[in-house]
TrEMBL record, chain A:
It comes from Mesobacillus subterraneus. InterPro entries: DUF1657. This is DUF1657 domain-containing protein. Pfam families: DUF1657. It comes from the Bacteria.
Automatic annotation (TrEMBL), chain B:
Pfam families: DUF1657, DUF421. It comes from Mesobacillus subterraneus. Belongs to the UPF0702 family. The keyword RNA-binding does not apply. Its main location: membrane. This is DUF421 domain-containing protein. It is a multi-pass membrane protein.
Length: 67, 286
């Protein structure tokens, strides 16, 4: 797999994690847990933004791998 | 009135009376926590038995006696709540039998317990050596409460300084294939949610014997058909594995890339994710 594909895959895994954390935060009745899930979700969001930026860079540098 | 009708009438009458008395007496009466409740429990029972079988005539004498005993127990409970002195006299105080790991022979003698009795009581608490006990109290009801020495007490998460995920009570939302709507509401869920979860597990409602929701919103079920293998998803464990995978990916990217800027970005995010995983790990164990 190319670098671009790897980054893409990681990005979608992160998206999945974010969605699951969000659903856990809503579903649990333990406030501490809900808070922890929510905070982790925000961290994942930041990482996702960085990774997205990197993905764009890769696509500009090596357009042949764009998908 | 012949004997049979007498027995029938009196039995029904006393079932009703005893039911009323135990309802008034409450749970404490049934648990027989104190001397007084123990004695009145036995007496009420034997009065009822005596009057039902003794064919001497007046049923209401028996009912009166039971009512008197019931009233006394009730009064004793009410006064006991108000006054510590009354409690100590009526129910007796607990007696310390073992203190600082030493048996107090005087107290043992005062309660007329032999060393064999003490050993037997200790064994019922799974203690086979008197030397293991730090502190033991003989309760008014006659059973022994035992505090083991600290190093012999069961290990807890606190002893290990271990972070564990907090857990609240579970709710039973389905019983015998019937949805318990008030339990479902108490768990903060609704019928739509339940239908979706059951569909995810691949079972129909009328096949479910018990279904429980834990405080993380996970549904666990038991089905009538014991041959059926119900999947037991562990979404939180899976999530942790996914988080770890992403973290490893980020580290890998940082090793692979040749651009210094990207390397720095990947490293930063890998560390960030690592610390986030550390923080959330206790909540993801199930």
């Amino acid at each position: 797999m190319t670098v671009a594909a790897n980054v893409n895959q990681c990005l979608s895994t992160l998206k999945g994690i974010e969605a699951q954390l969000s659903s856990l935060a809503l579903n649990t009745s333990v406030p501490e847990a809900s808070k922890a899930f929510h905070e982790t979700m925000l961290v994942i969001g930041e990482i996702k933004a960085d990774l997205k930026k990197r993905k764009m860079q890769i696509e500009i540098e090596e357009p042949q791998y764009k998908n | 009135m012949n004997d049979y009708t007498h027995i029938l009438v009196s039995s029904v009458l006393f079932v009703v009376t005893l039911f009323a008395i135990t309802k008034i007496g409450g749970k404490k009466q049934l648990a027989e926590l104190s001397f007084f409740e123990y004695v009145s429990g036995i007496t009420i029972g034997s009065i009822a038995g005596e009057v039902i079988m003794g064919l001497d005539g007046n049923l209401f004498h028996g009912v009166l006696a039971i009512a008197i005993f019931g009233t006394f127990t009730y009064l004793h409970d009410v006064i006991g709540i108000k006054s510590k002195k009354v409690r100590d006299i009526m129910e007796g105080k607990a007696t310390v039998i073992i203190k600082d790991g030493k048996v107090l022979e005087e107290n043992l003698k005062k309660e007329k317990y032999t060393i064999d009795d003490l050993n037997s009581l200790l064994r019922q608490k799974n203690v086979f050596r008197t030397a293991d006990v730090e502190f033991a109290v003989l309760e008014p009801k006659g059973d022994l409460s035992v505090l083991l020495k600290k190093e012999l007490q069961p290990l807890t998460a606190k002893d290990l300084n271990l972070a564990v995920s907090p857990e609240k009570e579970s709710y039973t939302v389905v019983m015998d294939g019937n949805v318990l709507n008030d339990q479902l509401t108490a768990a903060g869920k609704n019928r739509g949610w339940l239908d979706v979860e059951l569909a995810n597990l691949g079972v129909t409602l009328d096949n479910v014997f018990i279904a429980e929701v834990d405080s993380y919103g996970k549904l666990t079920i038991d089905v009538y058909d014991d041959q059926l293998q119900v999947p037991s998803p562990q979404p939180r464990k899976l999530l942790l594995a996914m988080l770890n995978k992403c973290q490893a990916d980020l580290e890998l990217f940082s090793l692979e890339t040749e651009s210094p800027d990207a390397k720095k970005m990947y490293n930063k995010n890998a560390t960030k994710l690592q610390s986030a995983i550390q923080k959330i790990k206790p909540f993801l164990s199930e």
